[in-house]
Design goal:
The complex is a heterotrimer of chains A (367), B (176) and C (414).
Chain A (H helix, E strand, L loop, with lengths): L7 E5 L11 E7 L2 E8 L7 H5 L8 H7 L4 H16 L5 H29 L5 H21 L8 E2 L2 E2 L7 H24 L2 H7 L7 H6 L5 H5 L6 H4 L12 E3 L5 H25 L18 E9 L2 E9 L5 E7 L1 H5 L3 H5 L4 H11 L3 H5 L1
Antiparallel strand pairs in A: 1-2, 2-3, 4-5, 7-8, 8-9
Helix pairs in contact in A: 2-3, 3-4, 4-5, 4-11, 4-14, 5-6, 6-11, 11-14
Chain B lengths: L5 E2 L2 H11 L4 E5 L2 E4 L4 H10 L7 E9 L3 E10 L4 E10 L4 E3 L8 H12 L2 E3 L52
Parallel strand pairs in B: 1-6, 3-6, 7-8
Antiparallel strand pairs in B: 2-3, 4-5, 5-6
Chain C lengths: L1 H4 L8 H13 L4 H38 L15 H11 L10 H10 L1 H9 L15 H23 L2 H32 L4 H10 L4 H4 L1 H15 L10 H4 L9 H26 L14 H22 L5 H32 L4 H28 L10 E3 L13
Chain lengths: 367, 176, 414
């Protein structure tokens, strides 16, 4: 006789160690199995899209920091490049290279954070997280050296970047680029060959390529599912067409693949940085853009590959000093589209791992 | 071999859409195609299934308040062919309603909810059209251009949060 | 006074107690009184060790974990942060011990207190030195195993009385896990008991002393099984599914605050010390260390071994991710249980050969040790391969693609 059990509704979050902020997942449990899941978000909603409509184009750059606060550089980059395309502004060569260097450093920092918290969600008691923090810290030092901030950088400007790199920057970056592969080899030994991690994340949260595309997933989520797509390759922005790098693609579309894709992307980012360091030309770092500049009337959607996925901005200009519409296609939010499909039928422990592998940033989810 | 995503030519695409779904295209401006709302799901299905267009990836779904009407913009692309296309749908300002495309692209689910939440566009046929970023009962839809002049709304100069009406949300504060 | 003349004899704290008993007998006290007085003395000794150990362990664990995690750990309160546990305790005592409205008040309050009983009782039967044993039970091993399983009930009591969903999930996990892990640990210890042919802990140490060998060399498989099994029973990483910080927040003690939480925290450490002590006694020779005990007091050696084992537990915690519940159960039932049964059969066979043919211990024990080591290695590798076979279907590394490559869907037929 089957035992009839009352379904148990559990709120995972908004205050929970593994929800990466104030994300809330309301799951219905049958024992430990999840039979239904619903996500509840909005706890960190700061109405940025509305606020941006009342600020000038330049004033909006700090907002882009605070969306994905773990990847502020790419947030800046996406917004600036969109406005530049809308207004037809040419960016000086040196600024383009600096942008690439900083965006890739930010990608490493963000992936280090994502992988650290992912393994933490798998139950490793903070050790990998702190190792990853160690590497991230070195990158943040470089940011601090250049623009004075570590987290909300506000470094890029429409038409270039705000500051040139100081003299000490290049030797330190070179040291970092030489050191990081060794460090990540070490973490590979610790994490990749770990049977428990493999057991916890293999075949968990599996998404087929078709499902991933249908749910508009992007970034490591999409690549983990076996779709070799990267905006940097497919639709190169800035000067990404000048660099050689590979797209890591997963085999099975499970959490482990996503994790490994992120691990591999770190090395590819280092490759890009090495090339960019060699080619970095001297020159101006910012085009002359008036402070009260007004782009022509029109609209544009443009995207870049942020660490989380395809970060797009849909900007509508009415020719005025403020954006008429400022819409963000935030990868963190849209990557959650397939969350329910992934977690239903799994246990609570798996759901946490799955959520960790999506690598959301609630600042960007809620905006 | 660096390539770039090419926007599909609007006129050519409009012809193909018309051939598949008659009377769907209302207007073509540059690369943007304006679709009649009634035919939207058919057009979406056609674009998704057609192997030459292959718009299987919905990049972004954005709502825009154009004062007289609402506009929903669909940025679609094909990752296999590496081209992109833009669809637009207009909805009446007083009673905005647009058919949902969740059946075609699952990725539209959250984006439609967001547009409903912030702009008040009703997506008919959406499986779970609830407010997402704001709570049920929040007065008005903040991204509308007339939000500031709503009754009980935030008036410039008087920096006050919109009055919450307990009647509307059943007197109980719940975020869902 | 004979008692005071030898007060400095710290090699074995049993000696002064023996003098004390003699003195009391001379004074004409009845046996019951002497028993009560010496029992009380021993209890005070054990309780003070447990209290001090719990405080020191907090510091040791936090410092070591911090070293593993490239941090510094507590270093502000006192020299090297040694006073940190005391500062923590003061803070916890000051805090309000909240109790949820819907909680079952009596059980909720009782659980953190009662949970100390089995943890402390286990120390009573441990031989700290040659004569330093409070209660030399002839069924010591059985007693310890029995105590270990009573913890389950108390943890479930705490989780159920909290009336919290996470606590309920946590305590259900505890029950499932502890019951599963009872079996392999008991069977693993059965191997040891068979070899020593006694259940008394002092007898097992005496066996190791007589045959000049630690049982870990004769029973490597049992040692590993008991180590892993007790990791699970203690609820420590990689088997901390009962607390599972990243999943069910704190599991059974999620609703506890203030000193009630402090008690759970302390008892966790006391339990680890107890299990480390048991492993040190059964597998590492207890107070006996190949003649070293003639120079160093036996109880110091014992505590040293205990902390060596404790370090392994800390190391586990700092390194490994957590198993999922079903994987942990599968590990117990599919790996540890068969391994322990094989081990018991093997030991029985060896002991049979040994006693039946009246072979000399010096001849057979090295052979048994080598055979057992070889078999343990083979079994562990074999089971490890079998368990992760399904996981190795795909290569671990992602494939690297130089250019975008997205396939079109198969054309639909019809």
């Amino acid at each position: 006789m089957p035992i009839k059990a009352e379904p148990l509704v559990v709120n995972i979050g908004p205050q929970h160690p593994s929800t990466h902020g104030v994300f809330r997942m309301r799951v219905t449990l049958d024992g430990e199995l999840i039979t239904d899941a619903e996500m509840v978000i909005g706890y960190l909603h700061r109405s940025m899209e509305k606020l941006a409509e009342e600020r000038t184009w330049t004033q909006n750059i700090p907002f882009t920091d605070r969306m994905d606060y773990l990847a502020a550089m790419t947030g800046n980059f996406a917004y600036c490049i969109t406005v530049e395309r809308l207004a037809g502004i040419e960016v000086p060569e040196r600024a383009e290279y600096l942008r690439v260097i900083f965006a890739e450093l930010q990608r490493i920092a963000s992936h280090a954070m994502a992988n650290g918290t992912f393994v933490n969600d798998c139950g490793a008691w903070q050790t990998p997280l702190l190792y990853m923090f160690k590497e991230r810290e070195k990158i943040l030092d470089l940011f601090e050296m250049t623009c004075g901030a570590r987290l909300t950088l506000n470094y890029m400007r429409i038409g270039g970047v705000a500051f040139d790199i100081p003299d000490e920057f290049m030797p330190q970056l070179k040291g970092l680029v030489d050191e990081l592969p060794d460090r990540f080899d070490e973490y590979d030994q610790l994490l990749v060959d770990n049977e428990i991690l493999l057991m916890r994340s293999r075949d968990i949260g599996v998404l087929s390529a078709e499902q991933a595309m249908n749910a508009s997933l992007s970034g490591p989520m999409l690549r983990g599912s076996g779709v070799a797509w990267d905006v940097r390759k497919g639709d190169p922005y800035g000067i990404y067409d000048r660099f050689e790098f590979d797209i890591p693609v997963g085999h099975n579309g499970d959490c482990f693949d996503r994790f490994m894709v992120r691990m591999a992307e770190v090395r590819q980012s280092l490759r890009i940085i090495k090339q960019a360091m060699k080619q970095l030309p001297p020159g101006k770092i910012c085009a002359d853009v008036p402070l009260n500049f007004r782009p022509p009337e029109g609209e544009i959607y443009s995207r870049i590959e942020s660490p989380k996925g395809e970060l797009g901005y849909y900007l509508v200009s009415d020719g005025g000093p403020f954006p008429y519409r400022f819409h963000v296609r935030s990868p963190s939010l849209i990557n959650l589209s397939a969350l329910k499909d992934m977690v239903v039928g799994q246990t609570v422990a798996d759901a946490i791992v799955t959520l960790g592998s999506i690598d959301i940033n609630v600042g960007e989810v809620d905006r | 071999m660096p390539t770039a995503t090419t926007p599909m030519a609007g006129a050519d695409l409009a012809e193909r859409i018309t051939a598949a779904v008659p009377d769907a295209v209302r207007e073509v401006t540059g690369d943007t195609i304006l679709i009649t709302p009634e035919k939207l799901t058919d057009v979406a299905q056609f674009l998704h299934d057609d192997r030459d267009i292959d718009a299987r990836f919905l990049n972004a779904l954005s709502g825009v308040d154009r004062y007289d009407y609402f506009e929903v913009v669909y940025h679609l692309s094909s990752l296999a062919h590496n081209h992109s296309l833009v669809l637009k749908v207009r909805a009446d300002h007083d009673n905005p309603e647009v058919p949902s495309v969740v059946g075609v692209w699952q990725g539209a689910n959250l984006q439609e909810r967001e547009a409903y939440d912030l702009l008040g566009i009703q997506f008919s046929g959406h499986p779970n059209l609830k407010r997402m970023l704001l709570w049920e009962g929040f007065p008005g839809h903040p991204l509308r251009k007339d939000f500031m002049s709503l009754q009980g709304g935030l008036s410039p100069g008087l920096r006050r949060f919109p009055k919450e009406d307990p009647e509307q949300w059943g007197g109980e504060f719940r975020a869902d | 006074m004979a008692l005071l003349a030898n007060w400095y004899d710290l090699r074995d704290l049993g000696n002064p107690v023996a003098r004390l008993i003699e003195a009391l007998q001379d004074a004409g006290l009845s046996g019951g009184w002497i028993f009560a007085i010496t029992g009380l003395l021993g209890a005070i000794g054990i309780l003070s060790f447990v209290g001090v150990a719990a405080v020191i362990d907090i510091w040791i664990e936090r410092r070591l974990i911090a070293r593993i995690q490239v941090r510094r750990g507590p270093n502000r309160a006192g020299p090297f942060g040694l006073l940190q546990p005391i500062a923590d305790a003061i803070k916890l005592i000051q805090k309000e011990a909240l109790q949820p409205d819907a909680a079952d008040g009596i059980m909720f309050t009782l659980a953190p207190i009662v949970i100390f009983i089995p943890a402390i009782l286990a120390f009573a039967v441990l031989p700290w030195g040659e004569h330093m044993i409070l209660a030399d039970l002839n069924v010591g091993v059985l007693f310890i195993l029995a105590l270990g399983s009573t913890t389950t009930i108390i943890i479930f009591m705490a989780g159920y009385a909290s009336n919290n969903k996470f606590a309920l999930l946590g305590s259900m996990r505890v029950i499932a896990m502890l019951i599963s892990y009872e079996l392999p640990t008991v069977l693993a210890l059965l191997g040891v008991v068979l070899f020593a042919s006694t259940m008394s802990l002092s007898g097992i140490v005496a066996f190791q002393e007589t045959h000049w060998v630690w049982l870990i060399f004769l029973q490597p498989l049992a040692f590993l099984i008991f180590l892993l099994g007790s990791t699970a029973e203690l609820g420590r990483t990689p088997a901390d599914i009962a607390e599972a910080e990243s999943e069910i927040v704190a599991g059974f003690h999620i609703e506890y605050s203030g000193m009630k939480f402090g008690l759970f925290y302390a008892v966790e450490l006391v339990n680890v010390v107890a299990v480390s002590a048991i492993i040190a006694t059964l597998f590492l020779g207890g107070w006996w260390t190949f003649g070293l005990e003639t120079f160093v007091p036996g109880w110091m050696i014992f505590i040293g071994k205990l902390y060596a084992v404790y370090f392994i537990f800390i190391w586990f915690r700092g390194t490994l991710p957590r198993f999922r519940v079903d994987q942990l159960m599968a590990f117990a039932w599919k790996v540890l249980l068969p391994l322990s049964i094989v081990n018991v059969l093997l030991v029985a066979l060896e002991v049979f050969i040994w006693t039946e043919y009246e072979l000399s211990a010096g001849l057979v024990l090295p052979i048994f040790g080598i055979v057992n080591f070889a078999l343990a290695g083979a079994l562990i590798v074999g089971f490890g391969k079998a368990m992760t076979r399904n996981m190795e279907r795909f290569p671990k590394r992602p494939r690297l693609v130089a250019d975008i490559d997205v396939p079109l869907p198969e054309p639909s037929t019809g």
